Amino acid sequence: LQGTVTRKWDINKLLYANNIEPEDVIDRVYNRGGDESEEEDIEEEDFFKKKIYKEPSNEFDSYKPHFSDIEMLKNKWIFDNNNSNIDKEDSAGNSPFALISRRFILSKKMIGEDDS
Amino acid sequence: MAKPSNIVFQTHRNFRIRLILSTLSGKPIKIEKIRSNDVNPGLRDYEVSFLRLLESITNGSIIEISYTGTTVNYKPGLIIGGQITHNCPITKPIGYFLEPILYLAPFSKKKFSIVFTGVTSNKQDITIDGIKWGLIPVLEKFGVRECELHTIKRGSPPNGGGEVHLKVNTLLSSPLTLHVTELPKISAVRGIAYCTKVSPSMVNRQIDSARSVLNKIGCEVNITSDAWRGKNSGNSPGFGLTLVAESKKGWRIFVEDIGGPGETPEDVGTRVAYQLFEELSISGAVCRSQLPLAVVFMVLGKEDIGRLIINNNQIDSHLVHLLRDIKKVFGTEVFFLPDDNVIDQNNENNSILTVKGSGFTNASKKIA
């Protein structure tokens, strides 16, 4: 067999697998925080690799969420005067404004529809 | 009869939540290897202070700390509550101590009335405004309707000097089961901008800068100013902002921050406003700060399936650690239903967190 094998992981199967660190669970299921090229070829043996022990820092007893740098946030959430940043559409064709405006109860004028 | 063996945890990760889960379940735990590889090993002063607080609100708890402070044996007693005062060390804010008390207070014998003194906000832990506007509304969803938090004095870091009063008058047998499968719609953004021992104009500058960002979304924005001066303003100057996006059904998603060294009020106002957009874009019915509280109360619920819509971005390593700790203590597993089961088909990035309640009943509550 040639080529790479990409496995679609089910979060429910890995959630309570004590031989896999929680950070690895998230990396495998969502490909977050890791190098994607490394994540594509995941073999069965990876389950049994010995992990290097990392001492948790003080912040691991806190649930205060972390955010990206302010400059990154500003770039992501820049709005022009027409309340749309069409240039920044994701793969599904949704702009950040469209994603967030779904969560608000907005008047028709606010979301750019004509009053007439 | 064989003695029940301790549930063993390692490191200081989730230190408070592990002790809370032990207290709720009545199962003894052992936490070992606490900063065992650190230059300064063992428990920190705030962790010892939290153990003391736990001892004072329970009856019959046995806490044993090893000579080096790297191992703690905890055998929980009954949660009795009552009226106490807790002086928090200035190394951690009041929120660090108050947040876990919210998990225990509804299941005590007597009503809780605790006065906390110390620092009321910092960058690493939840502030008293976050608890008041973000966590207490989550408790209401589980049936805890009489819970109040009063700020008597504000105390900014580093020297604190604040004082808050927590009153929990609701005593539950078991929490209500949650069924939330649709994303709540946000109707308004509210907030509170505060300052201590600095010019009140700092508050207005935070409000103006936050409003300039929030107005772009086009919803109602209402931020309250709260300037503290004189003897009730603590021992240090400081300022901060908490923003809450609220729905008409009482769901509230919040973010907060305080001013750091060299930061202007405009920096804080703008940053918190952008953080609110970011948090809204990756939140389900609850935000990341509220999720642990919601999950633990769902696990404590009746033997019925609870459902809560969450965003897939909320499933992170912190949550996985929490879910594993819950399973270790209560034996309860949480499942995430795939996207195609989500009712709101527009939000394909969401999942439904489902859990069967453990059938927990409050053993401490008096029978009327």
UniProtKB/TrEMBL annotation, chain B:
<dbReference type="InterPro" id="IPR023797">
    <property type="entry name" value="RNA3'_phos_cyclase_dom"/>
</dbReference>
<dbReference type="Pfam" id="PF05189">
    <property type="entry name" value="RTC_insert"/>
</dbReference>
<keyword id="KW-0690">Ribosome biogenesis</keyword>
<dbReference type="InterPro" id="IPR020719">
    <property type="entry name" value="RNA3'_term_phos_cycl-like_CS"/>
</dbReference>
<dbReference type="InterPro" id="IPR016443">
    <property type="entry name" value="RNA3'_term_phos_cyc_type_2"/>
</dbReference>
<keyword id="KW-0539">Nucleus</keyword>
<dbReference type="InterPro" id="IPR013791">
    <property type="entry name" value="RNA3'-term_phos_cycl_insert"/>
</dbReference>
<dbReference type="GO" id="GO:0000472">
    <property type="term" value="P:endonucleolytic cleavage to generate mature 5'-end of SSU-rRNA from (SSU-rRNA, 5.8S rRNA, LSU-rRNA)"/>
</dbReference>
<dbReference type="GO" id="GO:0000480">
    <property type="term" value="P:endonucleolytic cleavage in 5'-ETS of tricistronic rRNA transcript (SSU-rRNA, 5.8S rRNA, LSU-rRNA)"/>
</dbReference>
<dbReference type="GO" id="GO:0004521">
    <property type="term" value="F:RNA endonuclease activity"/>
</dbReference>
<protein>
    <submittedName>
        <fullName>18S rRNA biogenesis protein</fullName>
    </submittedName>
</protein>
<dbReference type="GO" id="GO:0008047">
    <property type="term" value="F:enzyme activator activity"/>
</dbReference>
<dbReference type="InterPro" id="IPR036553">
    <property type="entry name" value="RPTC_insert"/>
</dbReference>
<feature type="domain" description="RNA 3'-terminal phosphate cyclase insert">
    <location>
        <begin position="182"/>
        <end position="281"/>
    </location>
</feature>
<dbReference type="InterPro" id="IPR000228">
    <property type="entry name" value="RNA3'_term_phos_cyc"/>
</dbReference>
<dbReference type="InterPro" id="IPR013792">
    <property type="entry name" value="RNA3'P_cycl/enolpyr_Trfase_a/b"/>
</dbReference>
<dbReference type="GO" id="GO:0030686">
    <property type="term" value="C:90S preribosome"/>
</dbReference>
<feature type="domain" description="RNA 3'-terminal phosphate cyclase">
    <location>
        <begin position="9"/>
        <end position="334"/>
    </location>
</feature>
<dbReference type="GO" id="GO:0000447">
    <property type="term" value="P:endonucleolytic cleavage in ITS1 to separate SSU-rRNA from 5.8S rRNA and LSU-rRNA from tricistronic rRNA transcript (SSU-rRNA, 5.8S rRNA, LSU-rRNA)"/>
</dbReference>
<comment type="similarity">
    <text>Belongs to the RNA 3'-terminal cyclase family. Type 2 subfamily.</text>
</comment>
<dbReference type="GO" id="GO:2000232">
    <property type="term" value="P:regulation of rRNA processing"/>
</dbReference>
<dbReference type="InterPro" id="IPR037136">
    <property type="entry name" value="RNA3'_phos_cyclase_dom_sf"/>
</dbReference>
<dbReference type="GO" id="GO:0032040">
    <property type="term" value="C:small-subunit processome"/>
</dbReference>
<dbReference type="Pfam" id="PF01137">
    <property type="entry name" value="RTC"/>
</dbReference>
